[in-house]
Amino acid sequence: MVPALGSLFFGHYKKARERDFQPSLRVKDVYTDHSKGETLKQKKESHTESLKDVHSFDSFYMDDDIMVKGYKQEALGYTMFCLFIVQTFALILIEENSLFMKTIRHIEETVKHMLGFDVLVVSSRIHTTRSSTKYFNYQCTRYIYHPETQLFKPHTFDLGTTCAQFAQLKMGLTTEEAQQREELAGPNFIHVHVPSFFVAILRELSSFFYIYQFSVLWLFYYFAYWQVGVADTIIILVSAVVKVIVRLGSERRIKDMAEFVDKINILRQGQWQTMTTAHLVPGDVFQITEGKTSPCDAILLHGIVVCDESSLTGEPLPIRKFPLPHDATQYDPTGANKISTLFSGTKIAQAQSKDKHQPPLALVLRTGTSTDKGELVKKILFPTRVSFIFDEHIKVVICILLCCGLVCLGLAIWLYTSGTSAWFYSMFCIAQLVSPLLPAALVVGQSVASDQLKNHAIFCVDMPRILMAGKVQLFCFDKTGTLKKEGLEFYGGMPVAAMGRNKKKDTLSDHEPPSHLPTLEASVQEDVHTLPTIMQLGLATCHAVTTLNGQFIGNPVDIEMFRASRWSLKDPSEKDDPAHVDTLVPPMTLPGLHCAPVHILKRFEFVHAKMTMSVAVLDTHTNKVHVFVKGAYEKIKEVCSPSSLPTDYDAMASHLARQGCYVLALAHREINMDRVGGLQAFLDWDRDQMEETLDFAGLILFKNQLKDDTAENIAELKRGGTRTIMVTGDTALTGVYIARQCGMIAPGSKVLLGDLDTVTQHVVWTDVDEPDLSPNVRVEDYLANRDHTPVELAVTGKAFQWLVECNKMRSYLLDTRVFARMTPNGKVRCVQMHMERGITAMTGDGGNDCGALRAAHVGIAMSDAEASIVSPFSTSHRSVRSCVELIRQGRAALATSLTCYKYLILYGQVMMMLKIFTFYFSITMSQYVWIAIDVLITVLLTWAVSQSKAATRLENHRPTARLLGYQTLASCIGLVAINWLFLISAFVMLFKQSWFRCNEFDSSAVDISKWWLLADNYEAEVLAIVCLYQFINNAAVFNFGYKFRQSWWRNYTLVFLWLVYLLFVSYWLIADPNPFGCLFRFNCGTKSVLEEIGYAAPSVYIEAYNTPLGHNVLPWDFRWKLWGLCLGNIAAGLFYERLVVVGPVHAWLAKKYPVKRLTSIESILF
Q1: Prediction pTM value
Q2: Residue 411: φ, ψ to 5°
Q3: Strand locations in 34-155, DSSP E?
Q4: Do 531 and 698 form a contact (C-beta atoms < 8 A)?
Q5: What are the φ/ψ torsions at residue 576 (nearest 5 degrees)?
Q6: 1013-1029: pLDDT as tens digits
Q7: How far is CA 817 from the centre of its chain?
Q8: pLDDT greater than 60 at residue 71
Q9: Where does residue 553 fall: left (phi above 0), alpha (psi -120 to 50 degrees), or beta otherwise?
Q10: How confident is the model at residue 109 (pLDDT cuts 50, 70, 90)?
């Protein structure tokens, strides 16, 4: 009989019939690779033919997020607009180009198209404005119909493009203009609908898998399997209620964040009117009030404001904002004009005005969901779908399991029963093969990891990104505040030697440009007050530091420099003239320096494009006006007159940078007011006029100090097979120094620096350590010899841009360790290029790193806020350790999700094996055995498997994300084969026993609705015992942490349940008849029969056995043999997983057939 099992299993299949059904929603997938900004596949089908008899085509619109097709239909006095909304799903990490997956995708697309599942149909009411303009609201955004283009799209207002155009809009709007704009833009209010608890429960329970679960429960109740039905119903309802409560709490928090309303003064009809912030529209002018929150994205027109942006961008310190300059430059809210832009949701910590009669004013730029805060709210309310490769594979897996269910249906009809009963039993098989817990198993690791990350002060707003963190191969770091300490330590200054001869003079007016080629002082002067007076004045004034509640606010470098000067900053209320930007006073203790205050007449903030800042200073003692320009030493060299530059300028600056110094340069010029036409004419100068004909004054030096834990955590990332890259705005030589100090660049590695030669307009490569001996080397020769001498590359921002334009950067990308002098846009481009080669993470302080943090697959902002607008992860623990922890938890989450998946798949496979045996032998197991399997064992062990903690250290491997990968299939198929082998062996051993008689009862005489009557025989008992051991052991087999989770014994919950369950089953198998065993119909029988064969009858009620023998008590010796066989099954499964799947065999195969890494995005994602 046993050999027949093989032919039975492999020889009888029935072809599945396709079932047509009518969809309620039709979803159309548009795959978009956001890292490249390209639409990979867009299906545009109008579906107008089926509707053209009753509808007329109205409009079509598509942007990056939504494709809208519409038809208008008049009915019942109102206009209903039927929208065909095509959601753009960002399917990240699914581009596996194997023929198998291409075929699967083609089949899926064809079936979706045939069933209409490729379009999501949403209805939205059409509204009209007072001017009869049509619009509808979708995802908190108003879409306006534009007749000239016949498109529905959010309305944009042309307020101007240049700074001067925006700065002129100070008169506000008329009431009529404001009303028209509010109709087009909608109110400045993001309405977040939070349903009631009852409605939320109904929506939750109406989803597909809940309907599927309740269908299964109906079968349980119908087939007198009510005990499991009740237990599963309680579990399902409790989980649904908990899920709804958690979701409603989250939605209420989002509602509190999004729905902001406050009173504000708005300039309308030339008069100030107190209104709510909901009435703000683009073009409005409003008053800024200290202590309140910015209600929209706005441009500062008048006054000086200090904003706390930490809740959105992660800026560690409040930011000082200045009025928009009146010049013809293009307005750039994220670049040069960020210091004049107020962002919605930021706190106004301080607001000052030069004119006491005019408060600080701002011009409304964007409102509602068009603001940066609105984008964050939309991202949270309507998250972009993120999919892993197993989201593609799970479809194939479910199809395979459904085919297995159809096989069981065929076997049930052939061997077990027929008619309606066969249908019910096949539904049972499908319910057990395709576990309702299966989809949840693939995301349970995310939930566990999210809780673990919170314990480490890492907050996540996009949980699927946790799994992406487990696949990170490239990690880009900003230097300042990330690798090194938050602030820089002021080291000193290095003035021009010619100036040193004048430093004892009392007045600033005594400075004269040197008459010969100057040189720098031989050593760094650490005491500021030993520097020349002109340089002291520059250090004290060339910054944008202000005070707030007694605390300095501004750039940390500027703050450190100002503190070192020992000057003081007058309170704005104490300024002599409101027209002055700031007033500063020198310390009175300094000999030889007059204590007359100086006034800042004009200031141009630091911008990344120019890499400089400048101030105009009025010295009240000499009544002279001085201009100071501070910035990157490379840039200051370009703007200074050549005669003022020291002969050793480049050599000294490079030497200091190689020593780890943060090097800035200071330039100076004195303004002759008579020559420029007076003070008013000078104040009208633009930035370019101020920053010309400058004389070099000296170098300003700061020390870069690594954080205490940076080196060890960089080493941890490198040990974990993660390439670390520095992307910084600092100098290349300083970046190389820090990279060496923290271990990014290995000791003994040669570093070649690429910089753009302004004369030849080509990149020149030099040896960082021997620039004079190797001024221009062939980088290809060094890279070809890298196996003998390790080589790392470093490039400046200009060199990077040139290499990108010449299409050479990609060939050097994975050899380049330091990207220096990078602008915010350059950082974005650098991250995007790395994303082409592997899963890329980026971390920074959220300031000039915002774009790169958004662009990366995984971005973690060093921010004190729990939710950052710039990245899916944020942490208040500003350390590289947070990056290590994110990858650790991401790898553990991915491994845990795959483990839960494998356990539930093996649950279904053991259940299928069990079903085949029950059908073949016309038997089953008792009710309480089924209850034990479905309630106690499966549910609790699935939960216990997910409780494994992340490994304490990173290893040089990443977990697989493939459900149909070689390792996953080897693990599952190998264990299935082992389980089959031992179950067949158990039956072979049973059939060889002299006391066993086969077919001793007629199963067809049993009422199939009373299926438990088929359990009172030896076959059912042996089957139940062996399968129970397998159900329990499968969890232990997949509990091996490998290199991503802690050792198996550290999952105390699972180990405890595993041992307890094994003890219970062993007791059932080995013990003589007892009440506990009889409850499950193990080694028990009718009381009278038990007494006849010499056993004491248990005192509990025992239903009479349904066999002529009257009992199923196994002989003593056979119990021990069977127990030994089951232990062998356990050991075989554990050893196979430990030695073959995750052990030496796997290591040997991985070494013999290594996976290609960091070559192309398609080959390394999974």
Answers
A1: 0.72
A2: -65, -40
A3: 38-41, 56-62, 66-75, 78-89, 120-125, 127-128, 134-138, 141-146, 151-153
A4: yes
A5: -70, -35
A6: 778 889 999 999 999 99
A7: 24
A8: no
A9: beta
A10: confident
| Structure confidence at residue 41 (pLDDT) | 33
Residue 32 is predicted with a pLDDT of 33
Length of the chain: 1166
Evaluate whether 867 touches 874 at the Cβ level (below 8 Å): yes
Q: Return the percentage of the chain with pLDDT > 70, whole number.
A: 81
Residue 344: Cβ-neighbour burial (10 angstroms; 0-12, 13-18, 19+) = buried
**Amino acid symbol at 962:** R
What does the pLDDT average to over 386-406?
A: 73
The closest alpha carbon to 769, from 747, 802, 787, 799, belongs to 747
C-alpha 996/C-alpha 918 separation (Å) is 18
67 forms bridges with which residues in the sheet? Answer: 62, 86
**More confident call, 642 vs 1118:** 1118
Residues 1042 and 950: beta-carbon distance below 8 Å: no
One DSSP character per residue, 1006-1052 reads S-GGGGGGGGSSHHHHHHHHHHHHHHHHHHHHTT--TTTB--GGG-H
Give SS3 for 162. Answer: strand
CB 695 within 8 A of CB 640: yes
Q: How many degrees, rounded to 5, is the angle at CA 803 between CA 797 and CA 806?
A: 145
> Does residue 501 carry a pLDDT above 90?
no
Contact 923, 1020 (CB under 8 A): yes
Cα–Cα distance, 470 to 899 (Å, whole number): 14
The CA distance from 975 to 32, in Å, is 38
Tokens coding 396: 């194939």
Using CA atoms, how far apart are residues 1142 and 320, in angstroms rounded to an integer?
55
Q: Report the Cα 218 to chain-centroid distance in Å.
A: 40
DSSP state of 995: T
428: which 2 tokens? Answer: 């049972």
Q: Report, as an integer, the average pLDDT of 829-842.
A: 90
Tell me the two tokens of residue 792.
């790392």
Closest CA to 388 of 1041, 1045, 964: 964
For residues 1151 and 28, the model is more confident at: 1151
Angle formed at CA 907 by CA 903 and CA 913, multiple of 5 degrees:
140
**Sequence-distant (≥ 6) Cβ neighbours of residue 835 within 8 angstroms:** 35, 855, 856, 857, 1161
Mean pLDDT of 184-196: 88
Kindly report the backbone phi and psi dihedral angles of residue 618, in degrees, each rounded to the nearest multiple of 5, phi listed first: -100, 115
- Whole-angstrom Cα distance, residue 61 to residue 46? 12
Is residue 695 within a helix (H) or strand (E), and if so which, with residue range?
strand 695-703
User: CA–CA distance from 874 to each of 127, 317, 843, 859 (Å)?
Assistant: 40, 16, 9, 8
Which residues lie across from 627 on neighbouring strands?
616, 669
Q: Among residues 852, 795, 788, which one has the least CA distance to residue 819?
A: 795
259, 550, 667, 755 from 353: Cα distances, Å: 29, 19, 30, 44
CA 964, 892, 881, 721 torsion-angle sign:
negative
Residue 741, phi then psi, degrees to nearest 5: -65, -40
78 strand-pairing partners: 75
Residue/partner pairs of 32-35 with CB below 8 Å, 24 or more apart = 32/64, 32/88, 32/89, 32/90, 32/91, 33/90, 33/92, 33/95, 34/90, 34/92, 35/92, 35/832, 35/835, 35/836, 35/855, 35/857
| Per-residue pLDDT, 974 | 93
Distances (CA, A) of 793 to 669, 706, 773, 954: 38, 21, 18, 26
Handedness of CA 481, 484, 485, 489 (dihedral sign): negative
Highest mean pLDDT of the ranges 217-231, 487-501, 707-721: 707-721
Joined tokens for residue 644: 């003022």
Integer Cα distance of 1092 and 284 in angstroms: 98
Residues 430, 416: Cα–Cα separation, whole Å? 16
Q: 1113 falls in which pLDDT band (50, 70, 90)?
A: very high
The letter for the amino acid at 652 is M
Distance CA 716, CA 719 (A): 5
